[in-house]
Every structure is written in structure tokens, then in C-alpha cells.
């Protein structure tokens, strides 16, 4: 099939609005002519990502991730450029029949590929054995617990028989024993044997849906061993970067506007049976920064649905604090003591579980309930502890009505007056460091330190992006930039104006993304264009031409200085007097140009 022509790519990009597309994945807020959002590409708690509807580009002023609609989908969904083009074509209802939309992605790191391949092979083997005579007892157990074929297929449930099926299979496939051990699927103790034996197997996936580990459950009466056995952490399975069912829950969570976080994968399966598909689970660890990055790609609202015992409530309290500090809207489901969603679904069915899920608590209400159950509120010291915790939580709030309501609740519980609470809140705000100085200002202050030549090049590029005539002036009078990246950007701009009279930054980025250059170079050039496009140069129109002439003059002076330096270096290595005289003559001519 033919390569997609540039005209078709332009048609695809123009068939959608970047605001509409990014709004499907992020919560956008209108601010002036642009839209802003919490950036999903770094640990962001304030809206630092800006989307220009006019230019059809976006940029984060902190991590500098930026580009057009294709770039966003590539970075956000971890897909290739050609896949992003196909996805936008689908959104814009552009007919792509006859064009090659084959995924073109870099292969998995050769070092990690054997581990992914072994896990994929293990998944196939476990699935096969569950559907044989050997696995009939395990399958009967699943059916008795209400796991129908749809559940078994959706969650990839399998069976590991009581023999070394994986070790034998991997040996036949040519894997060495070190790789088998490092995968976590095979154990060495005097001899090699499979980690999972006579257990029902649940695959564990990474965010892209690749199997990276397993959890095995015993199922026979009086069967020896721990109830659950999990894969150890490995180079492809890191608990702090894994959330069970993330890849399946991504779309349902975005559609629902929130995601449930459960304690274990059996809870997720129970929630699925109750028709709640926007559910994920922790992997036996506390929430990490890696989890936060994953969650920000999913939704800004989290509903914690952890176990109802003391350990579960402690985990909910810590998770709640962590998520609120990372900018999430959080709610908590208070489950009965000693119960989890799996047990509630088994005893009370979908209706019983749904009733509990409807009763969400705010972080403040959960804190008051949680802490007042642990503290003796007849005791002044304990009331003071609750007071301090309450003030801390209220100080994170921004809604006046919510603050007023929580101040009243805290006053009633602790017996401290509203005036005292409000006074402490005011002091908290005074003590609080400035969390967010406008990032644009920070960037502009940094730019003031940049060498004047680089600054002149960058500013001239800004005007070149906005005016074809400036690009022609640059080509005629300078035609050179010292900075390697800016020099290439300038050449793209000049080339773009050969066929176009008005600049379209998103279209220019298309040209770069579809060019046959390295992905690293594409990323650098796109970032440079987006940053330059967002420079603030508030010069009156009458002063712009003077500034442009100054920039071109400065760039020209720099080019002359560089040429003089090259000639002086050359002079030192030349022995022929005639050649030396010619070089000196050329240097003198260059000096005249700068006088």
C-alpha cells in the first residue's frame, strides 16, 4: 500500500479540533484565548499545559512536552505516529481505505524481549491447560464461584498443572536457564522447576496490556501453601509502576469520569461482574509517583474502595492524602469491617454492592470518621490532634462553601470555635510557600540569561513563524543560525513558505513528523517550534521591524565572528606565505563588514 501523502495527513489533522481531541483525555479549562489542563506528562498539580485552539498546538510550560494533535496522541497513548494518524482519521471520519496504517513502532528492547515472550507463551500454556482434563477441577472451582466463560476470557484466567510445563517448554524454545530464572517463572533450587504448580492463574498486565507477571491461587480443600503466590518483581514487572487491569479500565474510566481503586484483583473481577468496568487494583504496595502518572492519563477523580478492616482504612487514609496532594479529586467508599467488594458481591450481589458504592465520603468526612474512631475526643490532646489534621485537610480546599461546611463540622467535633479554626487556616496560608509562580515568567527569566546570539535567533524565528516576509528577509540577509536546532527549524520554515503564504504551526509539525529523520530529532524540532510559537514578544507593530533588523544584524555579526575564528584557526596551520596573506585579506574584509 502507498505511503500516506502529506496532503492526506493535512486533511486528517484538519478534520478535528485539537481541543475536542485532548478534551476526551484531559479536563480542560478555558483561559483567555487558550485552554489549560493538568499536564499528564509530569507530576503536575497546577494547570501548566496550554492548548491553542487558534494554532492547533499544545505545550506544557514546565516539562516542555508539546506539538500538534498527532504528537499528543503519540505521547499520551504511547502509540506510533502512523497509529496516531489513523486514530485521528477515525475521529474525523476520514476514509483511509487504500493507505497503509500498519503499526510502525520501535521493537521492544532486545534485553527485555525474552521476558515478554516467555510471559506471553506462559499465558497461552496456562489457558490451554485450564481447558483440558487436567484442569477440570480448577475450572469447576471457578464455575462454582460464579466465574463464567466471559469472566475467564476477559481476565485471561488459566491453570498451572503440578508439573514443570514452563521449564520444559522454554527449554525446547531455546531459552537459557538464567533468562528463565530472571523472568520469575522458573525457580532454581538444586534443579529447575516452575514457580506456579497446581494453581489457578491470573495474569498481571502492564499499562500496554502485556503480561508481565502472574498470581496463582490454591483451590483444593486442604491444599498446602499460601492462598496466593505472586510473581517476584523483575525487569518487566515493577509493582510501583503496575496497576491491575489498567489497560482494560482506561476507556471506561475516561467515559465515567472516575476510576475505582481496589485492594486486589479479585475485587476488580467482582466489580466487573457487577457491571463496573472502571476498576483497577494496587499490587500490594502503597501508591507511588509512577501510579500517579498512570492515573493522570486516566482521570482526575479517584474513588478509593479498599477493604473495610483497620489495615484497609489506614491504607485509604494514606492513599487519600497522597492523591489529594497530587491534585486529584478523591472520594472514599466505607466498606463494612472485614469485608471487601468480592465478599460483598458474593453475599449481597450487585444490588448490595451498588448500594455501598453510592455512599461516597469526601476526604474530610472520611478523616473525621477515621480519626474520631481512633481518638478519645473527651481528651483535649486527642481533640487537638484531630483539630490539626482537620485544618491541614481544609487548607488544601479551594471551594468556599466546602470550606465553610468543613469548618463547622470540625468545630462541632473538636469543640474549638470557628474563629480559632479560621485563624489557623489564615496562618496556614501565610506560612504556605508560593507553590506556583507563573511558569511562563520563570521561563522568560531563564531566557534573559541566554547568550544574545541565541536569543536573537529564537526571537527572529518567532517572527518568521508569524510572517513570510521576515522569513524571506532572513534568507536574503542572514541565511545562517549558530544554534544547530534553530538552524534546522529555520530551514523548515523557509521551505514551508515556498508553497504557503500563511504559517500553520500544526501543519509545519506534520511535515517534521512525517519526514524520514530519527524520532529523537523529530521530538527536538517539534519542541523547539512549540516553544518558539509561545514566546511573548509584546512589541508595538511600529517597533517590530526595527527589532527584526537588529536580530538579523546580530545573527549576521555572529556568523562573521565564527567565520573569522575559523580563518584564524586555519591561518595557524598554513605555512605558505601566499595562503596566509589571502586568509588575512579575507579576515580584514570581514572586519570591514562589522564596522
TrEMBL record:
It is an enzyme of class 2 (transferase). Its EC number is 2.7.7.101. The keyword Membrane does not apply. It comes from the Bacteria. Its cofactor is Zn(2+). Residues 257-338 form the Toprim domain. SMART domains: TOPRIM, ZnF_CHCC. A zinc finger (CHC2-type) spans 39-63. GO terms for biological process: DNA replication, synthesis of primer. SUPFAM superfamilies: DNA primase core (SSF56731), Zinc beta-ribbon (SSF57783). One of its GO terms (molecular function) is DNA-directed RNA polymerase activity. GO terms for cellular component: cytoplasm; DNA-directed RNA polymerase complex; primosome complex. Binds 1 zinc ion per monomer. Gene3D superfamilies: 3.40.1360.10, DNA primase, catalytic core, N-terminal domain, DNAb Helicase, Chain A, Zinc finger, CHC2-type domain. It catalyses: ssDNA + n NTP = ssDNA/pppN(pN)n-1 hybrid + (n-1) diphosphate. Keywords: DNA replication, DNA-binding, DNA-directed RNA polymerase, Magnesium, Metal-binding, Nucleotidyltransferase, Primosome, Transcription, Transferase, Zinc, Zinc-finger. Monomer. Interacts with DnaB. Contains an N-terminal zinc-binding domain, a central core domain that contains the primase activity, and a C-terminal DnaB-binding domain. RNA polymerase that catalyzes the synthesis of short RNA molecules used as primers for DNA polymerase during DNA replication. Belongs to the DnaG primase family. This is DNA primase. It comes from Sharpea porci.
Amino acid at each position: 500500500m502507498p505511503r500516506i501523502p502529506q496532503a492526506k495527513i493535512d486533511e486528517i489533522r484538519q478534520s478535528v479540533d485539537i481541543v475536542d481531541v485532548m478534551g476526551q483525555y484531559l479536563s480542560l479549562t478555558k483561559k483567555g484565548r487558550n485552554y489549560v489542563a493538568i499536564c499528564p506528562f509530569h507530576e503536575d498539580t497546577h494547570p501548566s499545559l496550554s492548548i491553542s485552539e487558534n494554532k492547533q498546538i499544545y505545550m506544557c510550560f514546565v516539562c516542555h512536552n508539546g506539538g500538534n494533535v498527532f504528537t499528543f496522541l503519540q505521547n499520551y497513548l504511547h502509540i506510533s505516529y502512523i497509529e496516531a494518524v489513523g486514530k485521528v482519521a477515525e475521529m474525523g471520519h476520514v476514509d483511509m481505505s487504500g493507505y497503509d496504517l500498519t503499526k510502525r513502532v520501535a521493537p521492544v528492547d532486545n534485553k527485555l524481549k525474552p521476558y515478554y515472550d516467555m510471559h506471553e507463551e506462559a499465558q497461552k500454556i496456562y489457558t490451554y491447560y485450564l481447558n483440558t482434563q487436567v484442569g477440570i477441577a480448577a475450572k469447576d472451582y471457578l464455575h462454582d464461584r460464579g466465574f463464567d466463560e466471559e469472566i475467564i476470557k476477559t481476565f485471561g484466567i488459566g491453570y498451572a498443572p503440578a508439573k514443570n510445563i514452563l521449564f520444559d517448554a522454554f527449554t525446547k524454545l531455546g531459552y537459557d536457564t538464567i533468562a528463565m530464572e530472571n523472568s520469575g517463572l522458573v525457580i532454581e533450587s538444586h534443579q529447575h522447576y516452575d514457580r506456579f504448580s497446581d494453581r489457578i492463574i491470573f495474569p498481571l498486565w502492564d499499562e500496554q496490556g502485556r503480561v508481565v507477571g502472574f498470581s496463582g491461587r490454591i483451590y483444593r480443600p486442604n491444599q498446602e501453601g499460601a492462598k496466593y503466590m505472586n510473581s517476584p518483581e523483575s525487569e518487566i514487572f515493577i509493582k510501583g509502576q503496575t496497576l491491575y487491569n489498567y489497560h482494560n479500565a482506561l476507556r471506561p474510566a475516561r467515559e465515567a469520569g472516575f476510576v475505582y481503586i481496589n485492594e486486589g484483583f479479585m475485587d476488580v473481577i467482582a466489580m466487573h461482574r457487577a457491571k463496573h468496568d472502571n476498576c483497577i487494583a494496587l499490587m500490594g504496595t502503597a501508591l507511588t509517583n509512577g501510579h500517579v502518572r498512570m492515573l493522570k492519563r486516566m482521570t482526575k477523580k479517584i474513588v478509593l474502595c479498599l477493604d473495610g478492616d483497620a489495615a484497609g482504612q489506614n491504607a485509604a487514609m494514606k492513599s487519600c492524602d497522597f492523591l489529594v496532594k497530587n491534585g486529584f479529586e478523591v472520594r472514599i467508599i466505607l466498606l463494612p469491617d472485614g469485608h471487601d467488594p468480592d465478599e460483598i458481591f458474593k453475599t449481597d450481589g450487585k444490588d448490595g454492592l451498588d448500594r455501598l458504592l453510592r455512599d461516597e465520603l469526601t476526604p474530610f468526612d472520611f478523616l473525621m470518621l477515621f480519626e474520631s474512631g481512633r481518638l478519645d475526643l473527651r481528651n483535649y490532646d486527642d481533640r487537638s490532634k484531630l483539630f490539626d489534621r482537620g485544618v491541614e485537610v481544609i487548607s488544601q480546599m479551594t471551594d468556599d462553601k466546602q470550606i465553610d461546611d468543613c469548618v463547622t463540622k470540625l468545630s462541632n467535633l473538636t469543640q474549638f470555635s470557628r474563629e480559632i479554626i479560621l485563624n489557623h487556616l489564615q496562618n496556614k496560608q501565610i506560612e504556605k510557600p508560593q507553590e506556583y509562580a507563573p511558569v511562563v515568567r520563570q521561563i522568560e527569566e531563564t531566557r534573559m540569561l541566554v547568550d544574545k546570539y541565541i536569543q536573537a535567533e529564537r526571537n527572529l524565528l518567532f517572527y518568521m513563524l508569524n510572517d513570510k516576509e521576515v522569513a524571506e528577509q532572513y534568507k536574503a540577509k542572514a541565511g545562517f543560525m549558530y544554534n544547530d536546532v534553530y538552524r534546522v527549524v529555520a530551514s523548515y520554515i523557509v521551505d514551508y513558505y515556498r508553497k504557503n503564504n500563511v504559517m500553520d504551526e500544526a501543519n509545519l509539525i506534520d511535515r517534521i513528523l512525517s519526514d524520514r529523520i530519527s524520532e529523537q530529532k523529530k521530538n527536538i524540532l517539534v519542541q523547539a517550534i512549540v516553544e518558539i510559537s509561545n514566546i511573548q514578544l509584546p512589541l508595538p507593530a511600529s517597533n517590530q521591524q526595527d527589532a527584526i533588523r537588529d536580530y538579523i544584524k546580530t545573527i549576521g555579526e555572529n556568523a562573521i565572528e565564527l567565520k573569522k575564528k575559523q580563518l584564524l584557526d586555519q591561518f595557524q596551520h598554513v605555512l605558505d606565505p601566499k595562503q596566509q596573506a589571502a586568509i588575512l585579506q579575507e579576515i580584514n574584509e570581514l572586519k570591514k563588514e562589522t564596522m
